[in-house]
Design goal:
By secondary structure, the protein is α+β, with helices and mostly antiparallel strands. It has a domain at 151-224: OB fold (Dihydrolipoamide Acetyltransferase, E2P), CATH 2.40.50. It has helices at 2-67, 82-91, 103-132, and strands at residues 151-158, 164-174, 181-191, 202-207, 217-224. Strand 2 (164-174) and strand 3 (181-191) form a beta hairpin. The longest helix has 66 residues, at 2-67. It is elongated. The termini are far apart. Residues 32-74 have low confidence and may be disordered.
């Protein structure tokens, strides 16, 4: 009897898991069915979003193309030239347009404007001359007794020739009218009998009778030796 009871208990234990599995299968199927149906219902809502996405991206792609003409470097518009600025100012003029004129009328008007400008310049220059006052006296002439010989002082620029030196005389005088210092230089050939002067020395010479084709001066003394 004990063996029969054990067999019954084993059969019931085997059948119990099978029954539990059969009961759980319909419940799992019911839960899976709504889960599968949900995407089918949500699909139409996602499709318009997918269609609208390219529309939202389209302006972003066109934006660089529209912004490209602003400037080559992307820093802004290029600066206008002077000619473009003048043209822009003329376009802003809101006054009345001048009547059409013939070539003769334009020529006469241009001549009149030039004549007026010339008169203004003359008047301005006359006023400036009046402000300057009387003209200056400049450098007064050196006092010289009649019959005396001229004496000059200069620097020796060449002493290569025998008994002859070349002296450069620098003269600075103030202009008599404009009061501006005018600097000039002259080159004279002088007779040096002892070959005493050398190049670079400061010497004093005096005029004399013609000694050669170019020599009209004679060495008096060496004022300062060249260093």
């Amino acid at each position: 009897m004990a063996d029969e009871e054990k067999n019954e208990t084993e059969e019931t234990s085997v059948e119990a898991p099978e029954a539990a599995a059969e009961e759980a299968a319909p419940e799992a199927a019911e839960e899976a069915a709504p889960a599968e149906e949900a995407p089918a219902e949500e699909a139409p809502a996602e499709e318009p979003a997918a269609e609208e996405q390219p529309a939202a991206d389209a302006p972003a792609e066109e934006a660089p193309a529209a912004a490209a003409p602003a400037g080559d470097d992307g820093e802004g518009e290029a600066p206008l030239t002077q000619k473009a600025l003048r043209k822009l100012e003329r376009s802003k003029h809101a006054g009345e347009a001048r009547p059409q004129r013939s070539v003769e009328e334009r020529t006469a008007e241009r001549a009149e404007s030039r004549k007026k400008a010339a008169a203004d310049r003359s008047r301005y220059r006359a006023s400036q001359r009046g402000k300057r006052g009387e003209p200056g006296q400049g450098t007064p002439p050196a006092e010289r007794e009649p019959g005396s010989k001229k004496v000059r002082q200069g620097r020796v620029v060449s002493a290569k020739a025998d008994k002859t030196i070349t002296v450069r005389i620098d003269v600075a005088r103030r202009h008599p009218q404009y009061e501006k210092v005018v600097r000039r230089s002259a080159t004279l050939h002088a007779h040096d009998a002892q070959n005493d002067a050398n190049e670079g020395d400061t010497v004093r010479i005096v005029e004399t009778r013609p000694l050669s084709r170019l020599k009209r001066w004679r060495l008096v003394e060496v004022v300062e030796r060249a260093r």
